[in-house]
Amino acid sequence: MNFDLTEEQEMLRKMAKDFLANECPKKLVREMEVDEKGHPPELWRKMAELGWTGLPFPEQFGGGGGSFLDLSVLLEEMGRACLPGPFFSTVVLGGLTILDLGSEEQKKSLLSQVAQGKLVLTLALTEPSGSYGASSIECRARANGDNFVLEGTKLFVPDAGVADYIICVARTTD
Question: What confidence tens digit (pLDDT) does each residue in 39-48 have?
């Protein structure tokens, strides 16, 4: 069995490494630690133009149709560069959740906006218990007309301060 990256994945890795070395120097990373947004919007726009924000989504939703391994190659280089930005929360936590569990309408409207770099998402999962099991979810979502009212506490929600939408894991029934 061959575990080497494909030629395309090697090209993606090299392009990402070179781009991030250029666009994301350590000085920028340090500046973003104290920045209210935590990321430079210009860098986010450039990553979207490269197709990174839509990489793992099917083409029918505005994405690049890449594999999870393609995404992993990109994430490894982002980790190497200490990329400041909402990529993981938007693409992985938010986007892949919508791709897996969202309605067709949500996939069409939200994933295409993520792919274009026009939308920042995140996922509110962790609760005070610290457990990730479904049985430990205590946050409640109670219907109120066409909306829901949330009751509970979520912790460690990455990029919540800059997210356009937060996907909140909550119970609607006992």
Answer: 999 999 999 9
Question: Do residues 90 and 120 touch, judged by C-beta distance below 8 A?
Answer: yes
The candidate with the shortest Cα–Cα distance to 95, out of 127, 144, 61, is 61
Strands 165-168 and 147-151: unpaired
Burial of 19: CB neighbours in 10 Å, binned 0-12, 13-18, 19+ = middle
pLDDT at 74 (0 to 100):
98
pLDDT tens profile 132-173: 888 899 999 999 999 999 999 999 999 999 999 999 999 999
Which pLDDT belongs to residue 3? 87
Task: Tell me how far apart the terminal alpha carbons of the chain are, to the nearest angstrom.
Answer: 47
Strand partners, 140: 151, 171
* Strands 121-124 and 165-168, bridge-based pairing: parallel
H-helix or E-strand spanning residue 149? strand 147-151
Rounded CA separation 91/97 (Å): 9
Q: What is the DSSP letter of 85?
A: S
- The tokens describing 38, both together, are 């935590």
